[in-house]
Amino acid sequence: IYQLKNNAKLDVGVVLLTTHRLIWRDHKNHECCIALSLSQIIYFEEQAAGIGKSAKIVIHLYPVTANKEPGPYQQSKFPYIKLSFKEHGQIEFFRRLTEEMTQKRWETPVPQTISTATGSQTGKTRAVGIVGIERKIEQKRKETEQNISEAFEDLSQLMVKAKEMVELSRSIANKIKDKHGDITEDETIRFKSYLLSMGIANPVTRETHGSGTNYHMQLAKQLGDMLLAPLEERGGMMALTEVYCLVNRARGMELLSPEDLVNACKMFESMQLPLRLRVFDSGVMVVQLQSHSEEEMIASALDNVTDKGSLTSEEFAKLLGLSVLLSKERLLLAEKMGHLCRDDSVEGLRFYPNLF
Amino acid sequence: MHRRGVGAGAIAKKKLAEVCYIMSKQIETFKSHLEEFASKHKQEIRKNSQFRVQFQEMCATIGVDPLASGKGFWSEMLGVGDFYYELGVQIIEVCLALKHRNGGLITLDELHQRVLKGRGKYAQDVSQDDLVRAIKKLKAMGNGFGMIPVGGSYLVQSVPAELNMDHTVVLQLAEKKGYVTVSEIKEHLKWERERSCHVLDHLLKEGLAWLDSQAAGEPQYWLPALFSEISSRDVTPDEANQMTP
């Protein structure tokens, strides 16, 4: 038996498994015997044998409770023990242990009485009552604490490696610059996809990472199919945030990042899809059907305004079944082209046909 | 033997093709490290918002954006992406639903509460830091997502209304009571009447402020974004009819 990192071991012996306990008995001195309640086991796993290493079973234990029986280790820093099977028996033992841990026969109430955990009862080591609940909470807390500090340590190590990747990508970027752009298409695409995978900004062009990768081309095609009907329903135009929600809700998982969406939409034109990404002066970004031309939109705005005498964004939105945001953009566009003029007061922004 | 990767000095001497090859090997190695990390700690990221903060800050320090793409390793293997992108969707929906009332301005607190409510009680927890990061990502899509510091926290703006320093300062002034008057602006900010009115008019036009011209004394400019749950509640049309004098 090993205590992790301590290497203090109880050497050669026999491990016995009962429905309630794990017992280890020294091979030579049969008087020397230690036991562990199965209820103390959180979980256990196998460690395969290797060169110079025997097969092991690692057993993770709950922290020591106050009513622990005296034994060779009153306290231990290390919540695992390892059973090393130098000769054989690991597979069978693991199977039996799994069985016992699944059945948990030590939990079956003994017919006589419900007793709280006492020192010598091996059957009922599950604590009951408020004290038991508090203990369980404390166990959980300590477990969590330990998990977290381990997690932070692992995280730091991971970041060290990630940093190396960032530096490597900068070196490559420098090389590309030195070559004055003399780099194959293939290498460029591959480099860009590495940057995308790692989440590193393109150090050469400083453009948004990963634009122009195969991933975004595929996305663009998917969007081209998926958005046609919704766009038609909404007068040929949708705010990008609306598209984002629509697409991600439909996907359910493996969602698109906002940047993924923008980068894919930027490729509509080069891939000759019937959609366009458009940015209005206000900064609002929309996806619009290419078939809905600028002139048509302006003409429709002018027609509607003339028809009603004047319109606010809200009124226009209701007429066309558009969002207020987009109807405002259309009115602004018509105004920009000189067809409408505005009356801006605290009561709202109202558009009139431009008679000047 | 590559223990810690190839040093920068060595790279400078190599050809581009060779370096690209090294990079592809390193990518594979890194991927498996990340996989191992994920198998042990993916739950931690999901459940522990403090851990998420730590993770994000470390990434930022080394120059990595784990939320840049859904196709990134971080997103695919740790599931961080889906967490934040879905949050983005929920934020957009809440802001859209309330825009008619607050003009596109909402306190981070209220946004937080409403998002949590929308997610239901069995969903994993979301902190304000999580919201802030999700909002930062939403900026990429235009549409004026922004954050205005007010009263120790933030107002989240979800419309492209132009808000300059003057507007921001008036919002901050209004934060305590939820409304502000011209006199208050003149007194606290030492502005002239014209400048004060100009700013308030703009807020009215953008739908961010409502005018109460029947207030005792002088007209009050109320900001729905600053109404707290405690001092206001939504009223049905029937109730409203009974209330009007």
TrEMBL record, chain A:
<dbReference type="InterPro" id="IPR040608">
    <property type="entry name" value="Snf8/Vps36"/>
</dbReference>
<comment type="similarity">
    <text>Belongs to the VPS36 family.</text>
</comment>
<dbReference type="Pfam" id="PF11605">
    <property type="entry name" value="Vps36_ESCRT-II"/>
</dbReference>
<keyword id="KW-0963">Cytoplasm</keyword>
<dbReference type="GO" id="GO:0043328">
    <property type="term" value="P:protein transport to vacuole involved in ubiquitin-dependent protein catabolic process via the multivesicular body sorting pathway"/>
</dbReference>
<comment type="function">
    <text>Component of the ESCRT-II complex (endosomal sorting complex required for transport II), which is required for multivesicular body (MVB) formation and sorting of endosomal cargo proteins into MVBs.</text>
</comment>
<protein>
    <recommendedName>
        <fullName>Vacuolar protein-sorting-associated protein 36</fullName>
    </recommendedName>
</protein>
<feature type="coiled-coil region">
    <location>
        <begin position="134"/>
        <end position="161"/>
    </location>
</feature>
<dbReference type="GO" id="GO:0032266">
    <property type="term" value="F:phosphatidylinositol-3-phosphate binding"/>
</dbReference>
<dbReference type="InterPro" id="IPR021648">
    <property type="entry name" value="GLUE_dom"/>
</dbReference>
<dbReference type="InterPro" id="IPR036390">
    <property type="entry name" value="WH_DNA-bd_sf"/>
</dbReference>
<dbReference type="GO" id="GO:0031902">
    <property type="term" value="C:late endosome membrane"/>
</dbReference>
<keyword id="KW-0653">Protein transport</keyword>
<dbReference type="GO" id="GO:0000814">
    <property type="term" value="C:ESCRT II complex"/>
</dbReference>
<dbReference type="InterPro" id="IPR037855">
    <property type="entry name" value="Vps36"/>
</dbReference>
<dbReference type="InterPro" id="IPR011993">
    <property type="entry name" value="PH-like_dom_sf"/>
</dbReference>
<dbReference type="Pfam" id="PF04157">
    <property type="entry name" value="EAP30"/>
</dbReference>
<keyword id="KW-0175">Coiled coil</keyword>
<keyword id="KW-0967">Endosome</keyword>
<dbReference type="GO" id="GO:0043130">
    <property type="term" value="F:ubiquitin binding"/>
</dbReference>
<feature type="domain" description="GLUE N-terminal">
    <location>
        <begin position="1"/>
        <end position="113"/>
    </location>
</feature>
<comment type="subunit">
    <text>Component of the endosomal sorting complex required for transport II (ESCRT-II).</text>
</comment>
TrEMBL record, chain B:
<dbReference type="GO" id="GO:0000814">
    <property type="term" value="C:ESCRT II complex"/>
</dbReference>
<dbReference type="Pfam" id="PF04157">
    <property type="entry name" value="EAP30"/>
</dbReference>
<keyword id="KW-0813">Transport</keyword>
<dbReference type="InterPro" id="IPR036388">
    <property type="entry name" value="WH-like_DNA-bd_sf"/>
</dbReference>
<keyword id="KW-0653">Protein transport</keyword>
<comment type="similarity">
    <text>Belongs to the SNF8 family.</text>
</comment>
<protein>
    <recommendedName>
        <fullName>Vacuolar-sorting protein SNF8</fullName>
    </recommendedName>
</protein>
<comment type="function">
    <text>Component of the endosomal sorting complex required for transport II (ESCRT-II), which is required for multivesicular body (MVB) formation and sorting of endosomal cargo proteins into MVBs.</text>
</comment>
<dbReference type="InterPro" id="IPR040608">
    <property type="entry name" value="Snf8/Vps36"/>
</dbReference>
<dbReference type="InterPro" id="IPR036390">
    <property type="entry name" value="WH_DNA-bd_sf"/>
</dbReference>
<comment type="subunit">
    <text>Component of the endosomal sorting complex required for transport II (ESCRT-II).</text>
</comment>
<dbReference type="GO" id="GO:0043328">
    <property type="term" value="P:protein transport to vacuole involved in ubiquitin-dependent protein catabolic process via the multivesicular body sorting pathway"/>
</dbReference>
<dbReference type="InterPro" id="IPR016689">
    <property type="entry name" value="ESCRT-2_cplx_Snf8"/>
</dbReference>
